[in-house]
Structures are given as C-alpha cells and as structure tokens.
Amino acid sequence: MAEDSMTKKVFDAEAAASLMKDLRGSYASGRTRSYEWRVAQLKNMMKIVDDHEQDILDAIRADLCKPDQEAYIAEISIMKSSCMRAIGELHRWMKPEKVKTSVTTFPSSAEIVSEPLGVILIIGAWNFPLLLSLDPAIGAIAAGNAVVLKPSELCPATSSLIAKLVGKYLDSSCVRVVEGSVTETSVLLEQKWDKIFFTGSGRVGRIVLAAAAKHLTPVTLELGGKCPVVVDSDINLPVAIKRIAGGKWTSNNGQACIAPDYCITTKDFAPKLIDALKHQLEAWYGKDPLESKDLARIVNSHHFDRLSKLLDDDKVLGKIIHGGQRDKANLKFAPTILLDVPEDSLIMGEEIFGPLLPIFTVDKLEDCFAMIISRGKPLAAYLFTNNKKLKEKFVKTVSAGGLVINDTVLHFAEKTLPFGGVGESGMGSYHGKFSYENFSHRKSVLYKGFAGDASARYPPYSDRKLKLLKALLSGSVIGVILVLLGWS
User: Fold this and answer.
1) For labeling, which of 35, 75, 84, 398 is most exposed (least CB within 10 Å)?
2) Could you tell me if 329 and 351 are in contact, meaning their C-beta atoms sit under 8 angstroms apart?
3) Catalytic residue among 257, 263, 368, 437
C-alpha cells in the first residue's frame, strides 16, 4: 500500500499534453458531434444523481457540513433540471436556424449552424462543488465538445466522488476529470484549449484570463462582487425577511457569489427590518447558532481567518448588532448583522463571501443608487418594494449580472434566463440554451447557385456598374431596376 501511494502518477506537463492529445483525437474523430452521443452522455449524467443521490449529499456534508436539504435544492435538483431541459430541447437547439437574405446576395439562402468549439476546460468552485463543476459540463457536452473537469480541491470528498462517477458513467475517451490543487490547475492552464470556463474569485479569474490570452482562448468567467439588497418600507416584511435571510444564510451560510453582500434601507425602517431579521435567525438557528445542524460551516481555516479579520477590524468595533459568535475548531461562524459600518472598512473593501451582513441606512431610498454604482457591477442586485417607479429606476440604473425584484438568488434556478456577470463580476453567461450557445460557435452559411451572377462585381469597372453595385448594396430593388433600364 505504501509503495502504491509513493508511485502514484503525478499530473505534470507531460501528463497534461498526453491528456490533450487523447481528447483532441477523440474530438477529431467526430465522436462527440452526433445527437445520439450527446443525449446518451446527458442521460448518464442524470443517472449519476439518480443512482448516487445519498453519496453526493454525504460528500457535500463532509466537505462543507451543508444540510442535505440545501445541498439537494441548490445542487442536485438544479443539475437534474439542467439535464432534463437539455435532453428535451437538444434536437431543436442543434437544428440550423434559417435566416433571410437580401437583394445584395440574390439569389441565395442562408442559415446559422451551431458547431462545437472543441476541447473545453471547466474549473469548478468549492462553494457548490457538484453543481459548479457538472452544470457547465451539461452545456459543453450538449454542444458536442470534449471536456476536462477540474473540481475544487477545497472539497476533496466531492471532488473524489465526481472523478469516480464521471469515470464510471460518461465516455472516458471524451470526458475526463483531473483532481488536484494549484499545481495541477496551472499545468492544465498551460495547454491550448478551445474554451475555458472558470467559476471562482476575481483574483484567480485574472490568472485564468492571462493564461488563456497566450493562446487567444475564449473564456467564460463566473466571478462575484458585492451584491446589494435594497429594502423599501412598503413591503410584506415577514415574506421579505425570509427571502433576504434565505438568500444570505441558507445559501451555504453566505458562501455564495449571489448571496446578498450588504443591505440598504431607510433610517426610519431600519429598526423594524433589523428586529425582524433577528427574530427570523433565532427561529431558524436557535439562540446558539453554532450548535445548529442547519447552518453550513466555513470551508477552511483560511476563509475562517479572513472573515474573522473583517469582523475584528477596528473600524467596525461596536457595529455588530447581532451574532458574531465563532468556533474555529469546528469552522462554525454565526450569522452576523452589522449596522452602518464605515464605507472604507475592510468588510466593504471586498466580497464578504460569508455570514456577515452589513446594513446601511439612508435618509431616502433613492440614495442607494450612488452607493451601489460606486462599488462596480455586482453579479446580482436585489430590490424589495411595491413602488413601480422605484422598480423601473432600479432596473434602468443598476448594472449587474442579474436583478431580482422582491426575492433573492432565485434567478439562478430559472433556465430561461442567462446567468453571468458583467464587468468585474464576470464575462459570458450560461444556463439552459445559453449554456449550449456558450460552448458553441454560431457558423454563418450562405448558399449560392451558379445562376444570376452580376457582372458589375468584376472588372472592367464603369459608372454604370458602380451605380448598379450601389443599388445592390443598398438593398434597393427599384434602384437596381432603374439602373438596368438606364433610367438612373
């Protein structure tokens, strides 16, 4: 056993090149392009979650102490929904799209044909370790690509399970999993891919983008940012509180890229909002949330220390109005509310990605726009109000990856909406057909016969030919007729 462990194959540059050679060969054979192959792989991905639901829940709980209900709703159910939609819609997605042509190319016909990009690298994230690895892969496989999955090493149990199940259920000549940490990821990034899909932090996203640039490889970056939630006073407060608290703390205890990062409300309404939040948190997690089995833990000691540093900043001392309890030995961190922290404090200088929620108060709610805009473009932004004009202004003014009115995070589950960032919160989008399009090239095809060739295209040039070409290129049928009749 010890000898086997010592001789375990290292994934180095040579191994990466060999992997790429194998996948390039499989892709070049045309194996991944057929409808039958794509659907077979998608159905087998469904089998992964159907046959191993409890194994998946156990692995995620081992990695994150995430409650089974959270893991099922946010990972398994969304992945199954993505698979079912892709299987049901794939034939239509693959069908060439007929488009009209103009008098400029008459007589002709045209269509847009979707073709796979080639060999794809998908780098998953740790906060939703199953979903953020396999959900992008659904789109990549549906589009007919060969795929390499790199699950997060911060969730070793889930990573190991993904490697085992993908190897068992999917076509290993076209879909592979590479486990490991920074070293393995760096080696993978040295290869020339046809697309890289990365979910994670902006810091690592910049590294991925720089590596891709060396090969002019297109990249989708699913990053994050400081997602605001703005709360008006004319709302159903009990419902709103559950949706705000749910989006923050039942989303992996705040460790989600679309979790509310900070809250803005008016000075007059803040006491009611805060009181309702406190009561809701106690109802869900009890008087000692560190003992609750319904609260996910922080992923590791590094992130625990990072969150502790944000909370121990001298500028926020005395601003904690609820929570703050911590248990480093078990990586448990209580839901914590802070009020009116300085905007230059550490907690407002980066995405929190944890259970801390600063609440800012303003004289009038319209003051929220300047604060939101000053912090760049977040991955998501939320507004709770019944005020029609405020809704319209929010949608028109706030630039974010996605907006939700009177709820939080639910847009992630809606497959008819593209999910992705803008600016520093990311580039590119996916989900549903948008996933298929993300991993496809929309190829333009123009069909011409040999009849109707216009001599005006060719030398020797003349004024009459120029007039005819101008009429053709402007799309004017009448102009063409007038030139041909010599009336122009």
Assistant:
1) 35
2) no
3) 257
Query: Residue 6: is its pLDDT beyond 50?
Result: no
**Cβ within 8 Å of residue 91, ≥6 positions away:** 35
- Amino acid 310: pLDDT: 97
Query: Of residues 22 and 485, which shows the higher confidence score?
Result: 22
Provide mean pLDDT across the span 193-197.
Answer: 98
> Per residue, what are the HEC states of the chain?
CHHHHHCCCCCCHHHHHHHHHHHHHHHHCCCCCCHHHHHHHHHHHHHHHHHCHHHHHHHHHHHHCCCHHHHHHHHHHHHHHHHHHHHHHHHHHHCCEEECCCHHHCCEEEEEEEEECCEEEEECCCCCCCHHHHHHHHHHHHCCCEEEEECCCCCHHHHHHHHHHHHHHCCCCCEEECCCCHHHHHHHHCCCCCEEEEECCHHHHHHHHHHHHCCCCCEEEECCCCCEEEECCCCCHHHHHHHHHHHHHCCCCCCCCCCCCEEEEECCCHHHHHHHHHHHHHHHHCCCHHHCCCCCCCCCHHHHHHHHHHHHCHHHCCCEEECCCEEHHHCEECCEEEECCCCCCHHHCCCCCCCEEEEEEECCHHHHHHHHHHCCCCCEEEEECCCHHHHHHHHHHCCCCEEEECCCCHHHHCCCCCEECCHHHEECEECCHHHHHHCEEEEEEEEECCCCCCHHHCCCCCHHHHHHHHHHHCCCHHHHHHHHCCCC
| pLDDT above 60 (res 8) | no
Q: pLDDT digits over 86-124, tens only?
A: 999 999 999 999 999 988 888 999 999 999 999 999 999
Instruction: Give catalytic status of residue 222 as yes or no.
Output: yes
Given 70, 75, 184, 222, the catalytic residue: 222
pTM, whole model, 2 decimals?
0.94
Q: Is 115 a catalytic residue?
A: no
- Rounded mean pLDDT of 409-421? 96
What's the whole-number mean pLDDT along residues 219-241? 97
